[in-house]
Design a protein that fits this description.
This protein has 185 residues and is of the alpha+beta class.
């Protein structure tokens, strides 16, 4: 599969290569991981930063590509690269949505939020409230969170202005799906 897309080489280490016996060093970030997904997964981004930092040091890429689907992870990686002076360009890739019947409500909520902003609405609580109302109408959906935050700080905002991230996590049975949109206002 990799060769068919033009790859010459891949790095696919075993866990033992990445985490030798007695491994005790981690990259731990404050602030950005303490919101959205980090609220219910408090050590997740510590692991993400550590493994991505190790991969960057081992592979020394010029560019690394991360999907906007996990916008919080993208923001965290971008900040880590900036803070730790990694000589790497982080490229955010657009979301490609593969829909299932009940999960379609997520893309509908994204479109609703985007449309409200395009129509001039700036009250974050109103936008989020309407998105939650739409999602809650789906009987199989259980909202973990729908929040509007500043993309650079992951802090909640009252008004949609500046670099805005509207992110959500919703459970459909055992599956927990995330989605989001970013706006520059």
């Amino acid at each position: 599969l990799c060769e068919s897309t033009g790859a010459d080489i891949i790095f696919n280490p075993e866990p033992e290569e990445m985490y030798a016996d007695g491994f005790v060093s981690f990259i731990n970030m404050t602030g950005l991981p303490n919101a959205l997904c980090g609220l219910t997964r408090p050590i997740h981004f510590k692991g993400v930063c550590t493994v991505v930092g190790k991969l960057f040091n081992i592979v020394t890429p010029d560019r690394a590509y991360f999907g906007q689907k996990d916008a919080q992870q993208l923001a965290i990686i971008m900040r880590m690269v900036k803070d730790l002076n990694f000589d790497i360009e982080i490229v955010g890739c657009p979301i490609i949505r593969e829909e299932r019947k009940a999960a379609v409500v997520l893309s509908k909520a994204v479109k609703l939020g985007q449309d409200m902003i395009a129509d001039g609405e700036r009250d974050a609580a109103k936008i989020v409230g309407e998105m939650k109302k739409l999602i809650s109408a789906e009987p199989l959906a259980t909202i973990d969170y729908v929040e509007m935050v500043n993309m650079d700080t992951m802090q909640s905002i009252e008004k949609a202005e500046g670099h805005v991230l509207c992110a959500m996590a919703v459970k459909f049975g055992k599956a927990r799906l995330i989605d989001n949109f970013i706006a520059e206002l």
